[in-house]
Amino acid sequence: MSLVVALSGGVGGAKLALGLSRVLPAEELLVVCNTGDDFEHLGLSVSPDIDTVMYTLAGLANAELGWGRADESWAFMETLAAIGGETWFRLGDRDLAVHVERTRRLLAGEDLSAVTAEFCTRLGVLPRVVPMTDHRVRTRVRTEDGWIAFQDYFVRQQCRPVVRQIAFSGADEARPQPEFLAALRDEKLRAVVICPSNPFISVEPILALPGVRTALEACAAPVIAVSPIIAGRAIKGPTAKMMAELGLDVSAAGVAARYGDLLDGYVVDHADAASVPGAVAATTLMKTIEDRENLARVVLGLAYRLRGCQLRE
Ligand code: GDP
User: Fold this and answer.
1) Are 131 and 35 in contact (CB under 8 A)?
2) Which atom of ligand 1 lies closest to the CA of 227?
3) Ligand 1 in contact with 98 (CB < 6 A)?
């Protein structure tokens, strides 16, 4: 048996995680989700990236919205609005049940890993899905008006503020999820895949956990990223805007530069083939299920090749 670890945020990460889940035996895939986006809202513990990955792998994701569940209804939000509640963060009725039950279990003393594993099993998700940590890490964004919580920036202000700095509060004291760390040391590890997620707010919270960068550098398997930027643009979300605001080159090459020595392999879109020397070019815009599977095969194929000749000594 071999093992592949995928580091994922929400939408872009979940797309490739789904592709990987369809070309690998379930027991060979471990998806590690960012929890820097997690927050407490209306008294509930919300874990957006875990839920996006979970719903996507369960075949329950809302394709039109790009978040939440398909076949959703909104009676809770409508009622909340009618009585003057906070409605800037939308929670569908079906989705709500997940947050309510997660909150109850966390308050009863279970950790986020156990809750996530149980929900995934119940919803028919076969690969392992784990939070990056069971400890509290919260992404914060420094704007021209000072530091704000991530969801305030992302959802309430719809990424409008200019980002000057990003911090992961609690990351220094957090421990990476044990199965994640164990997988990085596992001799069966065949690849670590950095999904095409936002580097700053989806991947870097994971990399900020103590020991993760060192474990990635030390692991025998190649670390391979897929660019979330295609031809200078993000498919969705603020990745390109953030790169520009942080003074980085908004390109697939800019993402590779940000990851730096961590990468052994890099997959870019055909559109960017000429601009990133040494990268493998593929169709990286995942519109269909076949696109997701094909990109997963490209990444795994590259991992096989790199294991024969590691770039890094
Ligand atoms: P979030 O937590 O929901 O913002 O999700 P992620 O960080 O996982 O995903 C956002 C990133 O995914 C953006 O930078 C998008 O450009 C990228 N993305 C979304 N769909 C695709 C796709 O089909 N292909 C590639 N290469 N990137 C994608």
Assistant:
1) yes
2) 26
3) no
Cα 184 from chain centroid (whole Å) = 17
Q: Which residue in the block uniquely carries the two structure tokens 């994640």?
A: 180
Q: Which two tokens stand for residue 136?
A: 């509290």
Does ligand 1 have an atom closer than 6 angstroms to the CB of 11? yes
Please name the residues in contact with 25: beta carbons below 8 A apart, sequence gap of 6 or more.
1
**What's the one-letter identity of residue 51?**
D
Domain coordinates in residue numbering, the chain: 3-312
Ligand 1 centroid distance, CA of 81 (Å): 31
Judge whether 91 and 102 are in contact, CB under 8 Å: no
pLDDT value of residue 309: 58
| pTM higher than 0.90 | yes
- Tens digit of each residue's pLDDT (9 = 90 or more) over 107-151: 999 999 999 999 999 999 999 999 999 999 999 999 999 999 999
DSSP 8-state class, residue 219 = -
19 CB near ligand 1 (under 6 Å): no
* 265-303 confidence digits (pLDDT tens): 999 999 999 999 999 999 999 999 999 999 999 999 999
CA 12 / ligand 1 centre spacing (Å): 3
Asked if residue 313 lies in contact with residue 306, where contact means CB atoms within 8 angstroms, the answer is no
CB distance 239 to ligand 1 below 6 Å = yes
| Nearest CA, atom 22, ligand 1 | 285
What is 3-312's CATH topology?
Rossmann fold (3.40.50)
196 Cα to the center of ligand 1, angstroms: 5
